[in-house]
Predict the 3D structure of the following.
Amino acid sequence: MFPIVGLAIAIVPDAPLLAVHTSTLERVFFGGPMPEPAAQLRRFLLGPLGGTIAGYFLLQAFVVSGPFRRREPWAWHAVLWPMLLWFVVDSGMSVYHGAFFNVWMINVWTLLLVGLPLAMTRRAFGGRFMA
């Protein structure tokens, strides 16, 4: 599902999928509708961002469908640590810039969708947090 969302973000940045996020972004940073040059920059930035999201989660799908399924310990870590790094950096920068909405609307839910299965499978991989 996440690779498809990433592609949608990249290809159709003004789609209804992002409407609530976009309107909140406009309100927080512009106090109303975004000026057109800013909207163009947003559309451009969503291209590389969406591509990165799609690629990252496609890689995760391959890790989970093969080595993770075989309970290879490195595969559990290959899902956990990149996700935590992303969450800390993305959330930290969002908070720094006053974009708390991004943490709530995107980051927390993504972390839960990936983190809960990781927490539930930890014992099957030896129960250690370090490789």
